[in-house]
Structure formats: C-alpha cells, structure tokens
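Model it.
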Amino acid sequence: MKIAFIHPDLGIGGAERLVVDAAVGLQSKGHDVVFYTSHHDPKHCFEETRDGTLRVNVRGDWLPRTIFGRFYILCAILRQIVLSLSLIYQDDEKYDVLFIDQLSACIPLFKSLSSARVLFYCHHPDKLLTTRKSPLKKLYRLPVDRLEEWTTDSIVVNSGYTGTVFKESFRSIQQTPQILYPPINFSGYDRSVDLNDESVKILQCPQKMLISINRFERKKNVELALRAFASLKDMVSTEMLAKYRLVLAGGYDRRVQENVEYLKELDQLAQEVFNLKTFTIYPSSLEKPPADVQVVFLCSFNDAQRTFLLSEANLMLYTPSNEHFGIVPVEGMYGSVPVIAVNSGGPVETIKDKETGLLLPSDPVAWGNGIKDIITGKYDRTQMGRQGREHVQQKFSLEAFADQLQGIINDLMDQPFKKSKCVQYFLIASISIAAVLLGALYPSL
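Modeled.
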C-alpha cells in the first residue's frame, strides 16, 4: 500500500520517535511510505529522516509558528491545513492510508476530498496540554477544544492511561481507542559505541553517570532530577557523591523560547541554589566539560551520543508526571539501565517496580533515597538492568509493533469507506476563523 504520515514538526521527541519507527516498521513490510511535515531541519531530526531511509516532503514552512509569540495552536492548525491541501491538490500520488498524529483538524478535509483511509494516533489530547488561567483564555480555547473533539476519528492511543484520559476528555466520542504501545528499533540501539567520535569524546568522564533524557520544557519537570541529585549531599559521603555526574540531556530548539528559558532556569538552580558546577553542551559544540563538572546539560544530542549515554549510564531518571507513555524509560531498560520514574501515567505500564527500576512519588527526597538505594547496592543494579532488557525485548519490539499496526490497518481497509461532507469542514473552518478573530481582538490571550 501507499502510506503517508502527516506530522507537524519532524524534530526530536517522543512523538517523532514513534512516527519514525512506525514508518520504518511499515516500510519493512513492503509498503511505500512517505512523510509530509511542516518543518524538518536536517540538523535537528532523527537519522532515518535525514539519511534517506524515509522520504520527507516539507510543505508550508513559510507560515508562522506563532503570531507575536502567541496563538501556537491556531498557527499549527493553519500550517497543517495548508500541508494537507498541498498533499491533496499538488501531488499526483493517491494514498491508501494516511497516518495522522498530534493534530486532528485535517481529518475531515481528507475524508471529504480524498479516498484514503485515515488512522489517527493520539499521544495525548491537545486540550490537556495548555493552561486556562483567565476567562479570556478559556473563551479562546473553547472553539479549538471543540474542533479537536469534532475532528478526532479512527483513534489509536499509546497507552491504557492515555485511553482513559481520552475517554474522559471527549465524552461525545463513542469509539473505544485501540492501544498500540510505541516500540523501539533494537538495531538502532545495538550499534557499538564509537569512542573516537568527537561528539562522544566530550561526554567521556571519570565519574559514573546518572542520566535524564527529556525535552527542556517545564512540564517535563527536569528539575526533579536536579533536586534529587542535590539531595544526595545529605545522604551519602562527599567522596561517594564525587564519583557521580548528572547528565541532563534532551531536545533543545533555539526557536522555542521555553527551551531557552527553562535551560537557563535549571542552570541557575544548579549553580546558585545547590552550588553545583555545571557545563552546557549546545548542538554542534565539541568543547569537553572540565573533569570536576557535576551537572552537564546536553542539548539535542545525536544518535552516537545517545548510544554512549545508554551504554555508560548507571541509572536513568525519568521525571515527568502523568506522562502519556514515555518512550525514554523503554530505551533505558533496553540499554540495561535501571530507571527511576514517577509513579503515574505511562511509566506505570512499562516499568516493573523494584524489578526493572523504581516507581516513586514526584518528590526530590524520595528520589534521592531511590538513587542512594541503587548506587549503594540495596538493589542489584546489574540484575535490574538485565530484567529491564528482557522485559523490553518481549513487549516493545519494532517487529511486534509493526505486526499490530499492520493488523489495525487491515481492519481499517476492510471497513466500508464513507466520505465526509464538505459542509462539516466548512463549519470547522468557520469556528477556527472565529477563534483567530477573537485572538486578534484580545492580544492578552
């Protein structure tokens, strides 16, 4: 079959890792797969979208991501609609299946104007990813939230937790989402570490590493790892603490103001509050941190650096609460690294408490004690790592994921095709325009 993936921004993150792996999995089954996206930076993306493994078409990147730093969601919807119209009218390709994720606004458009079957993968409802601190913000978000609910169809979710949240968030949708756990492509993690790679050399250090991998966003609560590491000052000897370095690695985009601000906040917290010596490695930098640095911020690491971190880490700290799924703990366990995560959301379904890691409340002292228990030998770190790898091999392989996804697509193709009426889309478009006008009238939104 001809299968197209529609994704807003092919950067570096859990959602991007999922769709890339899904595309590679379907391509391995003989399907003709292509990506359509509004943005793709070869310097800030996963290797498969850069090295020719997957074809990538970029459309509509000339449109703004924000209007004066605001209206992210409206700009994202506009960019997706332009991308979708480009696919429908500009290309001669006729696709059998469209795999859409993150934004559902384009679904009625495709169901009205194309013959492709649509599959929507819900990482988490968008309506839950923003705050509504003022009445005007609530009013502004109302049509956008309704739009999301009206357009979402043919749903697959990434965890049982997300499925429950989905049903609670969209009560008018009767369909029960299917669960399709994200996989990892083992071959991408089995590569030997190239210690001569210049980007890897700068990470080599005499200390043992504790790692955290998350985007530099406040909702990821990266500071929990930092606070937990600092709390070890009161729990272990100075000599033992000196044997460890905390590496906070994750997606970082200079275009995203929150990334820039949050990194600065974390650095100030480490230096000014906890008196920890820090060093920041920005993308493309090859400057090596001094040997006595205790906290390293690694911005937008490459695949070689990821392989090195997962092969050398003594412990992984996964900090978000109520995470939709969380592919990073799965990556850590496959690398035989014990994982400490918050006891909520997706990690509860992936981590076996006290077997492959620890599930703890989102409290720095509790995490500090958890770290201490592992590094001082209360838990057998090697055994935890071995059990974690076996767990991932059994449950989260790319082959198992591709087989399940193929079955879902087969079921979708067996269903009678029903075209949506364009009037539905015009109604949705009108609501979107009204939301834009409301935002223009009230810039404080």
